[in-house]
Amino acid sequence: MYTLAHPWVLLALPLPLLVRRLAPPYRAARNGLQVPFLDRLARLTGREPDTGAVVRQSSALHRALLIATWSCLLAALARPQFLEPPITRTVPVRDILLAVDLSGSMETKDFTGARGETVDRLSAVKDVLDDFLARRAGDRVGLIVFGSAPFVQAPFTEDLEVCRALLAEAQVRMAGPKTALGDALGLAITLFDRSNVRERVLIVLTDGNDTASQVPPARAAEIARDRGIVVHAVAVGDPRAAGEEALDEETLKTLSTTTGGLYSYAADLAQLSAIYARLDALQTRQASTVSHRPRRDVYAWPLGAALAMSILYHAACALASGRRPHGAVRVHHAGIRLPSGLPHVQPTGA
Q: Whole-angstrom Cα distance, residue 178 to residue 288?
């Protein structure tokens, strides 16, 4: 499909006709006859040199070429463009941040895998989160791991394969043996401050209680609520455990209720998968698409046509003038009309 970026330029199409009708014709003064003895010739003939005019008549072909060239030049100035097929891109409307606990207790083998074997908690979490990430097309996803301190593994990105690869490489105790849940929430809030997406979701997965944070989790939850961040807490620890491995369900429930999120507890892989299925149902993706049609300028085509016609016309004129016999003169105007029977005048001087 073709279009014009400046179609108003075509309004100048009848401009040459208006100039021809309203403007005075071009006049050029030149001598019709040049001889060194013109004064003597005038005395002998008794006639005085007079003036006249020669009106040059153009051919129909010349007029047609002028009209075509002017039309092509205006078409080039109107900037014709070819519209390429539309390009549609999905714009993310939601940022999802995953905060995964890598404390020492995550190596406890108390989960039943997909094949019935016993696996550690982190391996079960990786299997479920990998499937969860595979279905996040249209979202931006980030990854935080925390133990004794939180670390950003992947900032918000639409490249889900990178997040899945970084999650697969995560190891227990990689961020320290303790659990800094409050600091992980604080780091998540910092990442969300750089986001301009409307929907902000934080999914926290932990199996212990907060033992190393400088910011209390309850206070971090209040700040997250004020920033419009929804926190979903998923617990995978043993509620009957004691010490650092004890599961602080009250704190996780407080995080969820304060921010309007969901709290869930998973004792095995099936329950963990069901929790993420619920999260999928709660966070229905509302994708936004942006369509763009690239424009390719083709003004060179009419401009080249105008240049080609001009070159061909002048080349034809040059060939036509070169074929005239030598010595042939086309007389348009004579300043003095000589009477018949005038004797031959011999020029004098140089």
A: 41
Q: Based on the number of CB atoms within 10 Å of its own CB, is 197 exposed (0-12), middle (13-18) or buried (19 or more)?
A: middle
Please answer whether residues 45 and 341 qualify as being in contact, where contact means their C-beta atoms are separated by less than 8 angstroms: no
* 135 lies in the same domain as 202: yes
| CB distance 228 to 200 below 8 Å | yes
Q: How far apart are CA 98 and CA 79, in angstroms?
A: 50
Is 66 found in the same domain as 176?
A: no
CA dist 276 to 103, 148, 215, 249, Å?
Answer: 21, 26, 27, 18
What are the pLDDT digits (tens) for 132-186? Answer: 888 777 778 899 999 889 999 999 888 889 999 999 999 988 888 888 889 999 9
- Taking CA 272 as the corner, what is the angle to CA 271 and CA 273, rounded to the nearest 5 degrees? 90
Question: Is the same domain home to 117 and 213?
Answer: yes
Separation CA 261–CA 49 (nearest Å): 108
Half-sphere exposure of 89 (CA within 13 A, CB side): 7
Domain hosting 310: range is 2-84+295-322
Nearest one of 225, 178, 232, 244 to 204, comparing CA atoms? 232
Label residue 286 by pLDDT band (50, 70, 90): low
Q: How far apart (Å, rounded) are the C-alpha atoms in residues 327 and 184?
A: 101
